[in-house]
Design brief:
This protein has helices at residues 2-7, 15-31, 37-59, 66-78, 85-100, 111-122, 138-154, 158-179, 183-187, 193-202, 213-232, 238-257, and strands at 79-80, 102-103, 106-107, 128-129. By secondary structure, the protein is mainly α. It has one domain (2-257).
C-alpha cells in the first residue's frame, strides 16, 4: 500500500506522462486520433530539445524532461496539419514561453495552451486542432477519466476539474436553449480526447493557476463561461482562447495583488 501511495503521490513526476500516454493510446487505438505518429514524435523531440537547450543556457542545469514530454505529446495530439513544421514550431514556442514569458518568477500561460493559441493566431490557414469525440465507445473515456481523476485528486487539483466539468455541463444546457441545438449535441465535446487533455493537464497546471482554492474554482468557472461566449460566436477553438484569456488575466491579477508576499508553489509537471 505504501508503494502504491508513493506512486500516486505529488512527488511522482511521471504520473502525468503516464496518463497522457494512456490518452494517446486509447484515442489512437479507438479512433486513430493522431495526424501521424511521425508528427507526434517530432513534436515531442522538439519540445525536449528546446527544454534541454534553454534550461542549460538559462539555469546552467538540464531540466527534468517529464514536463516537456507532456507538452510535446499534447501538441502532437491536439494539432491538425498536413505539414511537419507547425508541430516543431508549436512545441518550441510552448517550451520557450516557460523561460521567457514570466513575471516575478511565475509562468503566465500554460505552455502547450500558449503554443497552440500562438499558431492559431499566426498561421490559421496552415493548421487546426483536434475535434474528435469518443462516440459510443465509452470504455476508453471511462478509463482515462478514472486515471485522470485519481491523479488530480492525489495532487489536490480535482476541484478545478470538477468545477469546470460541472460548469460546462450546465452552460451546455444554457447554450442549447439559445441555439436550439439538443443538449447532447452541446455537451458532446467534453467526451473527446482533446478535453481530457484540457481538464486534466491545462486548467490544472499548478505553475499557471492561482494559488487559493476559491480562486481556482472561480477561474475554472470563468473559463467555462468565456468558452460558452466564444462558442456562441462560432469560435471552434473556444477552450484554448478562453483559458489563455481568463487564466492569464487571473495570474496577472494575483501576482500584482500578492506582490512581495511569498507563496509556496505545488510541484507537478505541466502540459
Amino acid at each position: 500500500m505504501k508503494t502504491l501511495a508513493r506512486f500516486f503521490s505529488i512527488e511522482n513526476r511521471y504520473l502525468p506522462p503516464i496518463l497522457i500516454t494512456c490518452i494517446l493510446l486509447a484515442g489512437q487505438l479507438s479512433f486513430g486520433l493522431l495526424e501521424s505518429f511521425s508528427r507526434t514524435i517530432l513534436a515531442i523531440a522538439a519540445s525536449m530539445a528546446t527544454e534541454l537547450f534553454l534550461s542549460r543556457l538559462i539555469t546552467g542545469k538540464f531540466a527534468n524532461l517529464a514536463s516537456s514530454y507532456i507538452t510535446g505529446i499534447s501538441v502532437g495530439i491536439l494539432l491538425r496539419c498536413p505539414d511537419f513544421w507547425p508541430y516543431a514550431l508549436c512545441s518550441a514556442i510552448a517550451i520557450t514561453s516557460k523561460y521567457v514569458v514570466r513575471w516575478k518568477g511565475r509562468h503566465l500561460w500554460n505552455p502547450s495552451n500558449l503554443g497552440i493559441v500562438a499558431l492559431l493566431i499566426l498561421a490559421p490557414d496552415y493548421m487546426s486542432t483536434l475535434s474528435v469525440q469518443w462516440g459510443n465507445n465509452v470504455w476508453p473515456m471511462l478509463i482515462v477519466w478514472v486515471l485522470g481523476a485519481l491523479i488530480v485528486w492525489r495532487v489536490k487539483r480535482l476541484h478545478i476539474t470538477a468545477v469546470y466539468v460541472l460548469s460546462f455541463i450546465v452552460l451546455s444546457l444554457v447554450r442549447s436553449g439559445i441555439t436550439g441545438h439538443s443538449f447532447l449535441a452541446e455537451v458532446a465535446p467534453i467526451t473527446g480526447p482533446m478535453y481530457q487533455l484540457f481538464i486534466f493537464f491545462m486548467i490544472t497546471d499548478p505553475k499557471t493557476t492561482v494559488h487559493t482554492r476559491r480562486g481556482q474554482c472561480l477561474v475554472a468557472f470563468l473559463v467555462a463561461a468565456v468558452e460558452m461566449a466564444l462558442r456562441l460566436a462560432q469560435n471552434i477553438h473556444a477552450p484554448y482562447y478562453a483559458l489563455a484569456i481568463v487564466g492569464t488575466t487571473a495570474n496577472v491579477v494575483e501576482i500584482w495583488w500578492t506582490s512581495g508576499i511569498p507563496v509556496a508553489e505545488p510541484r507537478l509537471v505541466t502540459a
